[in-house]
């Protein structure tokens, strides 16, 4: 993939706006540049004693027209640039969002939500501001300088006087070249510190309930304070160099003015330059100072935003780690067996495998139970089935098709995955359940809710299925959230469903009802249930026991119970004892 160059692509698509703006800037400056000349001629008339009432009115009207014309055309030029700047923001934000949604889990585990938000907000705005402001100020200044110098020459001001007065201004590019990279580096540090702060804030607001329950607000305040302090330090470092830079530009302007006054004054006294031309010269030099100062600001802001632009280009050039093969096909998984053969997987090449030599044949329509200690690789195995991470070629096949040769859409629409902590959106319960198909009939939503045993809870809520949930579904209890997420998986009625510890937060009676309803509804449909409680999987056609990434046992519930030395029987004994204690029937 070619590296992304968003600015170049954008300019290619919108160059005519810039051209239009350039034309209006040109008109505005051509009008504006007459202002010193008119004043110069006014001064000459005054000196020669030829000023009449009519002439005063004439000059006043002329100056008014010049001012109004310049402002009007400058305003139009600015409008075009601001318009196109907002378009840039809109395009890039849309593109970024689309790009981010295509990225895989590995990308999100590296980039926190706060960081991504910071790219959206700070970086895009920084680039937009610098291109809008940059274009306006640079074209304005360039045109003004060119037209001012031309006008001075036409007015008969000696070239050596113009050259001497304008010379200090020519030093600006050298200062820019020297200070620019320093500003850019320091600005990058500020942007990074801002990203860290957004990330910390996002995480801390997200975890505020935990913070409060542990009464650790002071620690959190201190941690957040450190990130803010880092921003302050970085910003001060940036301000030191950028304010020095910004102060230098007007200083050079002032030196130019002093030369114009001193040398111009001398030449006026010695009759080499008319008083009118002397007034015009000082006004022209004064006139150039503001745009030059703006250019200083612009160059500063361009230096700062180059860091943002580089980051945005780099981000948009990143390829998702999971990509569809060229010949990927969509196949119907309704009757496809899932074959896992000699599957070994590691998240990082340097670390030990998380799964080792896994072999499972999941016949179409069967129920597979997976149990194992925490961290034994159960979820990882499911992520590979969904191709959230890439398994080695040939190790996972649906029917006869390698999972890598399936289109991602066909895979993920036909395999429903219900995680343990399903994220709920801050919208209605109905929309959360009908997530994959927003226009599902209410009756389908209700049926799924019944299967997930959440129906009776929902109908007790004031707006039933139209009840809006708080952020991340926090209006509901943990068990209710889990069952809503389960309903979201069940409504798909997909050929394959994976329940990844999806009933861990419900009581034993509700779990039994959910399992019974799943058994009924998913008869003849492939169902994979991961659980820590044996009660949730004991009905499965086959159960595999994972330990340390390896299948250590497999069979039906009864077969596994007979392997008395096995992990399964041990887990069973512990859980049975626990439930006997819980129901008060223990004899010990
Ligand atoms: N994105 C990741 N990057 C690196 N290592 C990971 C990643 N996700 C999981 N792991 C590691 O892989 C191992 C298996 O994790 P996995 O989530 O598959 O276990 P699990 O059996 O589902 O656990 P649990 O029952 O607690 O959900 C763990 O040691 C975990 O630390």
Automatic annotation (TrEMBL):
Q: Does the keyword Transmembrane helix apply?
A: yes
Membrane topology recorded in Swiss-Prot or TrEMBL: Multi-pass membrane protein
Cited SUPFAM superfamilies: ABC transporter transmembrane region, P-loop containing nucleoside triphosphate hydrolases
Q: Which GO terms describe its cellular component?
A: plasma membrane
- So which domain of life are we looking at? Bacteria
Concerning Pfam families, the annotation shows:
ABC_membrane, ABC_tran
Quote the subcellular location field of this record.
Answer: Cell membrane
CDD domains per record? ABC_6TM_TmrB_like
Q: Which Gene3D superfamilies match?
A: ABC transporter type 1, transmembrane domain (1.20.1560.10), P-loop containing nucleotide triphosphate hydrolases (3.40.50.300)
Show the GO MF annotations. ABC-type oligopeptide transporter activity; ATP binding; ATP hydrolysis activity
PANTHER family per the UniProt record, alphabetical: ATP-BINDING CASSETTE SUB-FAMILY B MEMBER 10, MITOCHONDRIAL, ATP-DEPENDENT PERMEASE MDL1, MITOCHONDRIAL
Protein name, entry field: ATP-binding cassette subfamily B protein
Organism field:
Paenibacillus cellulosilyticus
């Amino acid at each position: 993939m070619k590296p992304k160059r968003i600015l170049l692509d954008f300019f290619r698509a919108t160059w005519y706006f810039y051209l239009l703006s350039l034309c209006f800037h040109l008109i505005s400056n051509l009008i504006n540049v007459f202002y010193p000349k008119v004043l110069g001629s006014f001064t000459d008339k005054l000196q020669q004693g030829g000023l009449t009432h009519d002439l005063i009115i004439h000059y006043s009207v002329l100056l008014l027209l010049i001012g109004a014309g310049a402002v009007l055309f400058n305003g139009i030029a600015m409008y075009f640039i601001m318009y196109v700047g907002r378009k840039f923001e809109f395009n890039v934000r849309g593109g970024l969002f689309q790009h981010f949604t295509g990225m895989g889990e590995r990308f999100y585990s590296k980039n926190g939500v706060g960081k991504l938000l910071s790219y959206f907000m700070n970086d895009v705005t920084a680039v937009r501001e610098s291109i809008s402001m940059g274009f306006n100020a640079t074209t304005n200044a360039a045109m003004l300088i060119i037209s001012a110098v031309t006008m001075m020459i036409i007015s008969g001001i000696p070239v050596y006087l113009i050259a001497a007065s304008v010379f200090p201004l020519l030093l600006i590019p050298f200062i820019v070249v020297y200070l620019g990279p320093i500003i850019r580096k320091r600005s990058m540090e500020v942007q990074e510190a801002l990203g860290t702060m957004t990330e910390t804030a996002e995480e801390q607001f997200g975890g505020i309930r935990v913070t409060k329950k542990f009464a650790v607000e002071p620690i959190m305040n201190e941690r957040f304070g450190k990130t803010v302090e880092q921003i302050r330090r970085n910003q001060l470092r940036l301000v030191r160099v950028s304010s020095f830079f910004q102060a230098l530009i007007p200083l050079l302007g002032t030196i130019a003015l002093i030369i114009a006054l001193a040398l111009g004054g001398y030449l006026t006294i010695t009759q080499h330059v008319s008083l009118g031309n002397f007034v015009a010269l000082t006004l022209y030099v004064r006139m150039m100072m503001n745009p030059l100062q703006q250019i200083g600001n612009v160059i500063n802001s361009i230096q700062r935003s180059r860091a943002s632009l580089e980051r945005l280009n780099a981000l948009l050039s990143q390829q998702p780690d999971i990509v569809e093969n060229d010949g990927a096909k969509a196949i119907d998984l309704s009757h496809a067996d899932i074959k896992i053969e000699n599957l070994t997987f590691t998240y990082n090449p340097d670390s030990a495998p998380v799964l080792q030599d896994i072999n499972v044949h999941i016949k179409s329509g069967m129920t597979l139970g997976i149990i194992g200690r925490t961290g034994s690789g159960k979820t990882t195995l499911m992520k590979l089935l969904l191709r959230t991470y890439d398994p080695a070629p040939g190790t996972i096949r649906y029917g006869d098709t390698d999972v890598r040769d399936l289109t991602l859409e066909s895979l993920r629409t036909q395999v429903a995955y219900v995680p343990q902590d399903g994220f709920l959106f801050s919208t209605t319960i109905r929309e959360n359940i009908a997530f994959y198909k927003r226009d599902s009939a209410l009756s389908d939503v209700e049926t799924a809710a019944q299967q997930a045993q959440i129906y009776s809870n929902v109908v007790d809520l004031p707006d039933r299925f139209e009840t809006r949930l708080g952020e991340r579904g926090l209006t509901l209890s943990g068990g209710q959230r889990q069952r809503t997420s389960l309903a979201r998986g069940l409504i798909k009625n997909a050929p394959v469903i994976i329940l990844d510890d999806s009933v861990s937060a419900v009581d034993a009676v509700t779990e039994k009802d959910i399992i019974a309803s799943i058994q009924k509804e998913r008869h003849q449909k492939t169902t994979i249930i991961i659980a820590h409680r044996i009660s949730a999987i004991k009905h499965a056609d086959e159960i595999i026991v994972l330990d340390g990434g390896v299948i250590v046992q497999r069979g039906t519930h009864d077969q596994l119970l007979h392997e008395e030395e096995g992990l399964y029987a041990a887990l069973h004994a512990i859980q049975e004892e626990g439930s006997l204690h819980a129901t008060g029937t223990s004899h010990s």
